[in-house]
Amino acid sequence: MNKYLKLDKWNIIEEGFVHENVTSSESIFSIGNGRMGQRANFEEKYSGETLQGNYIAGVYYPDKTKVGWWKNGYPEYFAKVLNAANWIGINIKVDGEELDLNTSKVGKFKRTLNMLEGHLLRSFSATMQNKNTVEVNAQRFLSIVDDDLGLIKYAIKAVNFSGVISIAPYVDVDVVNEDSNYDEKFWDSITQSASDNEASITAKTKKTNFVVTTAMRYEIWKNGEKLELAPVASFRDKYAESMSEIKVAEGDELIIYKFATNVSSFNHNVSKLEEVAKLELNKAQNKHYDTMLEEQKQAWAAKWEESDITIEGDVEAQQAIRFNIFQLNQTYTGEDERLNIGPKGFTGEKYGGVTYWDTEAYCLPFYLATADKHVARNLLLYRYKQLNRAIENAAKLGFNSGAALFPMVTMNGEECHNEWEITFEEIHRNGAIAFAVYNYIRYTDDKEYLEDYGLELLIGISRFWSQRITYSENYKKYVMLGVTGPNEYENNVDNNWYTNTLACWTMDYTQEVLDHVKSVAPAKFKALSEKLNFTESVELARWTDISDNMHYPEDKELGVFLQQDNYLNKEQILVKDLDPKHRPINQNWSWDRILRSCFIKQADTLQGIYLFEENYDKETIERNFDFYEQRTVHESSLSPCVHTVLAAKLDRMDQAYDLYLRTSRLDLDDYNVEVHEGLHITSMAGTWMSVVQGFGGLRVNNGKVYLNPRTPKAWDSYSFKVRFRGSVLKVNASKNSVEVENQSSNDVSLVLFDKEYKVKGNDSLTINN
Amino acid sequence: MNKYLKLDKWNIIEEGFVHENVTSSESIFSIGNGRMGQRANFEEKYSGETLQGNYIAGVYYPDKTKVGWWKNGYPEYFAKVLNAANWIGINIKVDGEELDLNTSKVGKFKRTLNMLEGHLLRSFSATMQNKNTVEVNAQRFLSIVDDDLGLIKYAIKAVNFSGVISIAPYVDVDVVNEDSNYDEKFWDSITQSASDNEASITAKTKKTNFVVTTAMRYEIWKNGEKLELAPVASFRDKYAESMSEIKVAEGDELIIYKFATNVSSFNHNVSKLEEVAKLELNKAQNKHYDTMLEEQKQAWAAKWEESDITIEGDVEAQQAIRFNIFQLNQTYTGEDERLNIGPKGFTGEKYGGVTYWDTEAYCLPFYLATADKHVARNLLLYRYKQLNRAIENAAKLGFNSGAALFPMVTMNGEECHNEWEITFEEIHRNGAIAFAVYNYIRYTDDKEYLEDYGLELLIGISRFWSQRITYSENYKKYVMLGVTGPNEYENNVDNNWYTNTLACWTMDYTQEVLDHVKSVAPAKFKALSEKLNFTESVELARWTDISDNMHYPEDKELGVFLQQDNYLNKEQILVKDLDPKHRPINQNWSWDRILRSCFIKQADTLQGIYLFEENYDKETIERNFDFYEQRTVHESSLSPCVHTVLAAKLDRMDQAYDLYLRTSRLDLDDYNVEVHEGLHITSMAGTWMSVVQGFGGLRVNNGKVYLNPRTPKAWDSYSFKVRFRGSVLKVNASKNSVEVENQSSNDVSLVLFDKEYKVKGNDSLTINN
Prior knowledge:
Largest interface: A-B, 46 and 46 residues
Oligomer: homodimer
Structural class of chain A: alpha+beta
Largest sheet of chain A: 11 strands, antiparallel
């Protein structure tokens, strides 16, 4: 834990300069606009420890797989969103000495991430080796209005000297990835140029041949007047700059406006990239900084209008939930169905920036409830468009006839991960992707999606399950052998209850969707059947047979579902009885000891109960919750939120709140001393779930919204919004009352505290408890 | 399969030069003397594909571990016996053109590995680009009498020209390992020198700092007369040569005698290495080639006297079994308890030349039966001396109080392997090491070994089992969770029957040994107890409790022991029903498909029945054999021998013989098209087991030798020898009779065909059937 940030409802604030916190703050103060992202590296040179990170969505490198012992079926590469050209850099020299906070005496250092308006401010004074002191106020943002643009306003004041300040804004693609399996650099340069007040680099990723032009232009203003510059432009391989020397007198202030753009072949014709970059820079310079900042504020205001959660009476919680929502919205905007959400978003290299089941299981509910339906739809289309690759992936593992296994980790639909127990066995991910379709439909009722995409995907996944599941003559039941559940602290187990449950649910739901599509769109159904060689009678019969005769491990005496067939043969020790010195066990125990123990990394059986809660009575949920919560070490950031939702459901608000606290400030307070690697973006969605589904009790089922708001002791009140089938509900909950505003013109069916209401358009409902 | 060698009872013969077979023959024609080994690389330059290999026992490099995903507990390095200096090289030029079989027209090429006498002969004629034709007869051997020495007699004849032959014998340590994780070279040079007719290099391995001096001296004789040479000696970093130019007339024959030595800091004081090398070369030159070759023949004759197996009526089988015995004797001589037997011996780099459980499970029985007891004893001492490392290894995984887990793969006692499912879970190896003690004792009756070493090692291993085994409240039995049995096609299973059986046996045997030592050597026992903090009452009580209440998976209906708890939930498909196109499955199936299948890589449950055969009635053995043999794909070279022994025991001689054929010529006929990587040295011991324990029915139990010789249809007769407690028995078996000669002066108790006999010293017993 490393708690050094100030509390504030709308801002993340760091005061004082501590070298050891630089890389952590680089993560926390990251900015992004869905199209690109930027760690909070300094504009000027910094010779201390830093992790430079500039990421462009969709631009990746297939890094050759590193493996100790090859297993048949492993992928050849791991796709990585890579560190792209540095566009923020501005080298500053004062009378020949380079400004560098690592070697200067730094004062009044303050950093503010303004979440309300979507920009980052950094101010400091620095006394250099040559005794000159400067004051700097540097502000920057990545526009969510013009999402190829990044802007910097860098003000520097000569506090105690007259002299020459040399200012050299640059672009630089001679960058490294820390996460490179073979210490390669991933970029080859194509062209670089610099002239007048501009510089530009066009570079290409190795192997994947993505071409990106990174270009910049700048202006310098002195004491409020724009200067005529006489820049010295220069470039070398992978680097281009334009340098201006400005004479200043004591007290003078220079402002550098740096307009920068990253345009890539992911979005533009390669031959036009440099032209497009020029046009983008023109646009930025014409609108200019203040106008674009104003647009940025407005655009962020609109996002907050949709997705804000307010919490009264607990600034720490308020700041945390907004930080989580802000980062989610910086990472994914939902405008491009080729993009997805990496576990670290654009804030670090870990996990390669590629797609995991986190998206469907954790992020989707957030976007479903807080954004227009096309955002969630694009997340679904991302997978649909990779369906053929999922079929190829399954074929590689020996499945056939169109069975689809979506990869554990992917950029373009191909599997990237290579641990057999995960790559080949953690197949519950396939179910999460099927469940996402159901989740999307119940929130949006967009049944056309099923006709055009959903059913095809569901059939592919159901076909996989029906082949992956085998019949045990021993049990006289169907079984699923050799899997890894969400609890990665057990590997290669038989009949993981969660995976079995999800698999059979998929086959049932596929039949339901199939019946629907057949009846409302018979021509589409016929075409699809032909395309897929779908033999309805045979395949449906098998799915039904499996679903009716599946083996679910269970202990009747304890009244709990068993995580897997052999779970109860393990020594049953409770987390509370673990020596605290041994925790986290993933840092203190050998891997085999972890595997043999009963300790659970993250919600597994409870993940299933969370998904299908309506199928179980409260006592069953309670027994399972008590059994598994006592054995769960929550060593994944994705774990506590599911337990929070269930604990709240069981009216255990103190326990729910304790669990909630573990994630909401995970990054801000750096619980695991790892925030320097990047933020836990996908688990931030879990924080949102904890509040809205946990405390708020939001459920959507059978075309109705269910709410059951409870207020944690520590809070006075809170509010959140939910989109549902074209309507927007705002929920204001306090200890005494709940108000639900229907902010749309449609009527909404609502079950509040187990009682059904119809809330008319633009009307509201208030219940005092 | 690649069958290109000629059949012969005592020789391995290759005729004709085929470029594609060069690397395979390099493996097959390898020579070794236990102290060093040498692939059959050519003396003269060869520009075609080759795997150069010169190995020095005990000299290894700790290559930094390569791993995709790190797991807690993984080792930092993998020890590798490394490719050492080339000592065989003789560069030959004829009128300025280098002799190179890759660019010459080659005729009359023949290679003979003379197994009876222990040397390698190669002869050929080569017409070079310059039309000059030479005839070469090159013979070499690694002396088993003076085991630091290697000798070459290289005869070259000017067939069709008069001119100048330049001869440059050299030593060269600028060599690579193909198996290098990070493409490093493993040697640093210390000194190199060359003068007159000598050259020498002293080099040091990186990290481990083994120092090796490789030195050579040569003579050249022309038409039977020794020449006075005027050599040009030269050296550069890592390379030293002495070159002589000899004028020859058509028909002249030159003979080069190259005397070479490898002396290492593994055996000598570093400061004396160059001096020792000089003395070794003096010795070689003084004795000279013919004398040393004669000594070599006599020494090999003595080895064959002890270990030969004769087979009449089947040359192919005769050649194969001798090849296997020859290679085993080349690899390990048993004179140095710091050495062990790598799976490829000195014939290739694969598996790093390090120690596996192969030694105890497969090789030990061979050496027990065919060599003086100190040979097997040294194999046992090797492990005993690494006991502290095994205790450290267990501690690293979370065990305590002196529990010992011997590594899966090791050079110096530290674990080298890093696949969690093997490194941490394939712990049956620990049992094999305990069983080796028992095996040694029953053959030798060397009970003092138990007092001084055996008991201590057994206590360490039993302590490990007693901690690794846990109590299942569910079964109300002891269980062992998360293991990998010998069948590596199942990973992380619960209650592998073989491992459970072996573990409980170890604890029982440890108690038995403990009682023995306590009664015969109470002082030693007391000292040991104190050294180990052994709390007899507590520890023995736990061992007994476990052994009495262990869970053994079993299917009563089928009457078979189950490989693991969940084995019968797998789809039960038989090997005969596998599509041949899918075999071997380890090349055609994804890893998860293999894991989920019921197919067995190598004997597992049957390995246990093989070890403890006397505990099961014939019907039980038969049921288990039939069940598992039908599911075993034998994709380890270590597998068929165990099945052969059991099949023979069950009187299924045809099946036994079919299984036997799979291994005896595995390398000679290159069944798996991989012999270029090296020979399957440890599985060669399995071939010996198949004949002696399988067809011969040899068992040793309760101080008696059991024999039950059966003769395969294809053979007329066969013979083998067995050492037993100081006696030597020679068994001559044919279809009509069995003769057992007691070649020692002791009386021997013998059970032949289930009937007990006492065979007096130097007497024999003949039974006609």
